[in-house]
Amino acid sequence: MQNNSPAKKILIIEDEVFISELYTRALNRAGYQTDCIIDGVKALKKAQENNYDIILLDLMIPNLTGIEILRKLKDPNITPNFTSKIIVATNLEERDKVRKDIEQQADGYIVKAELTPSQLVDFIRTIQ
Questions:
Q1: Where are the beta strands (DSSP E) in 62-107?
Q2: Is residue 65 assigned to a domain?
């Protein structure tokens, strides 16, 4: 990516205000453009309408779970031409089978409690 390239756009789907503010500040400081949505239905619509480079997706959000959003975005019959990378961000300890299913559909998986905002930025930089 060249220095004069536009900043990558990131959609943060997160209902915990403290975490979403931490992520937004860290990512904005690192030069990313961010939008943040707490409602699952609104987040799905925004993800389908806009061309985000990366979607940071919490699993436990109101009105539509992160897993439902992930499946709808990755289904070409529901969301054709979808190209955003999806990083699942959760504090839940998923059963191995559920986690494996999520990891197969997502482009990354992080446990929020194990990552500082600066480590998140470093992780995001590795996503191509």
A1: 85-90
A2: yes
Q: pLDDT for 92-122, tens place per residue? A: 766 666 777 787 889 988 888 889 999 999 9
Q: Is residue 90 part of a domain?
A: yes
What one-letter code names the amino acid at 115? L
Longest Cα–Cα distance of the chain, Å, equals: 43
Write out the residue range of the structural domain in which residue 22 sits. 9-125
Report the pLDDT averaged over residues 83-88.
95
44 in a domain, yes or no? yes
pLDDT in tens, 4-48: 567 899 999 999 999 999 999 999 999 999 999 999 999 999 999
Q: Per the structure, how many domains does the chain have?
A: 1
Q: Tell me if 3 is assigned to some domain.
A: no
Residue 112 DSSP code: G
Q: Confirm if 88 and 106 have CB atoms less than 8 A apart.
A: yes
H/E element, 105:
helix 96-105
